[in-house]
Amino acid sequence: MKYIDIHSHVLPGIDDGAENWDVSLEMLRQAEQDGIEEVICTPHILSQSDFDREEEILSLLGELKTRARETGITIRMYPGSELYIQPHFQLEKKIATLAQNGRYFLIEFSMSMIPDFVAKKFFELILDDKTPIIAHPERNASVLSQPDKALSLVQRGALLQINAGSLLGRFGKNVKDVAHKLLDANIVHFIASDAHDAKSRPLKLSAAFHYVQENWGPEKARLLFYDNPKKMLSAQDIDMGPILPLEYRKKFSFKNTLSIFKKQ
Ligand SMILES: [Fe+2]
């Protein structure tokens, strides 16, 4: 099985991801061995002024492609970014949408809440044919206590990307449980690595793929790790079929939520 990873911090020295070229190349080597064949490089864009680094980011990507090719790595890489939600963010820059497809963009909230302006902002963007992909909603305290908040954003047209590590328990039991619930409700559209390094948060997807395959079946696993990312790359529509009931029975644990902040 081959995978496409839509969320990674593999570019060196630009954010809290890979520290240097050696780490970037080691991450890519691991990814290739893991079965990943395409990767979108999504450095954090924390404010509109971070977009001023677009040329630097594109140049780093160009150099990473060259260095990867020279060492025999054949993974295809694309530009992108992980935008931090703000009331007036723009999507005009080349790295604003993933793989420059002009439609899908990756957006993250703070770990603690979903701002009130999000619903209105997403509504305006979706009317303009832009589709938000919410990065790791399962790690957001507001979604942890009320998963139906993620559901309501999906009902308005947003898509969800959960982290491979969340499903495997890396961020604690509450995060894993919510990731399960979102998958059960059929409102997860992508699973990505959100890789930051070659050790604790690597560029790997196969373990999570097998986990999804065992628990939700091979068809769904293929959709989340390959078919939906492939469609997204060429700006095609993504349809997961009907939404199922979201039954969240676990009690919210403040202690477990604190553990998420520690691991950021
Ligand atoms: Fe990320």
Write up this protein.
The protein is 40% helix and 15% strand. With 264 residues, it is an alpha/beta fold. It has one domain (3-262): Alpha-Beta Barrel (TIM Barrel), CATH 3.20.20.140. It has a 6-stranded parallel β-sheet. Strands 1-2-4 form a 3-stranded parallel β-sheet. Helix 1 (21-34) links the parallel strand 1 and strand 2. Helix 8 crosses helix 9 (218-233). The protein is globular and about 50 Å long. The relative contact order is 0.16. Residues 249-253 have low confidence and may be disordered. Fe (ii) ion binds at residues 7, 9, 82, 135, 194.
Care to count the β-strands?
Answer: 9
Q: Tell me, rounded to a whole number, the average pLDDT.
A: 93
- Count of helical segments? 10
Shape: globular
Strand order of the largest sheet: 3-5-6-7-8-9
Q: State the order of secondary-structure elements, H for helix, E for strand.
A: EHEEHEEEHEHHEHHEHHH
How many structural domains does the protein architecture include? 1
Q: From the 3D structure, determine the CATH topology.
A: TIM Barrel
CATH architecture: Alpha-Beta Barrel
**By CATH's scheme, which homologous superfamily applies?**
Metal-dependent hydrolases
List all distinct small molecules, including ions and cofactors, that are bound in this structure: fe (ii) ion
Q: Proportion of β residues?
A: 5-15%
**Terminus-to-terminus distance:** 30 Å
Q: Roughly how much helix do the residues carry, as a percent range?
A: 40-55%
**CA radius of gyration:** 17 Å
Tell me, what is the CATH class?
Alpha Beta
Please outline the major beta sheet: 6 strands, parallel
